[in-house]
Each structure stands twice: as structure tokens, then as C-alpha cells.
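Data deposition worksheet. Section B asks for the primary sequence of the deposited chain exactly as it was used as input, without tags or linkers unless they were present during the calculation. Section C holds the resulting structure in C-alpha cell form. Section D is free text for depositor observations; keep each observation to a single sentence. Incomplete worksheets are returned to the depositor.
Section A, Depositor: J.P.
Section B:
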Amino acid sequence: MKQFLLAIFLIALPVAGFSAFESVFNSAPAVAGPTALGDLSAMQAVVRDTLAIVEKGDLVAAEKRITDFETLWDQAEPTLRPMNKDAWSNVDAGSDGALKALRSKTPDAAKVKAKLEALLASLIDPSKAVN
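Section C:
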């Protein structure tokens, strides 16, 4: 019986130590992985870049940068849309809102930022409809 308890202890100790180490030292922020539409990280990166440009106040440059997202999105449509039509529609609605906000005659920075944040949220979780 003592040997059995010793064996349990010798197994449990390293497992507990490893788990504690992982939870304390490997607590990097979660990175969005593949979604219902696969890996959208390249598109997320472009939208994040566009947001950063908007936050600097350069809406002209942001409009140019969002074109990179639009190109990626349009090129991926034949693959993504059949994967999950509802998820694709959610992201597409977010895309339309962001593009419209940036390309209006007099873009409003706050509105553009909100639309880009909504687009980014839909890229992270395409299962949720854009507001």
C-alpha cells in the first residue's frame, strides 16, 4: 500500500508542477485560431492595421489599407462561402459596413473605428452576426 501511495505521489507531483507552470508562465493572450471559415488571421491582421491607421487619424491611408482586406476577402469568397454560408454572410456584412464607412464622402473616424471593430469581431467569431 505504501508503494502504491508513493507511486501516485510521484506521478501527481510532476503533473501538478507542470500544470502550475503552464498556467503561470504560459499565459499568453489567446490568439484566434481557425473558425467556421478556417484561418482568417491574415484578414484579421489587415483589419488591425487599418484600425491602427484610423487611430492615428489618417483616414485616407486607412481607406487604402482596407482595400488589401477587400482583395483577400473577394479572393477567398469561392472557398469560404460554401464552408459556412451563415458565417460568411456575417463577415461579409461587417466588411460592407467597414468599407462603406471608410469610403463615404466625409468619413467619421468614430464610426469607421466602430465598423472596423465590428468587422474584426466577426473575423474572430464569424458565427455572430454583426450589429
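Section D:
Residues 26-33 have pLDDT under 50 and may be disordered.
The two ends are 62 Å apart (CA to CA).
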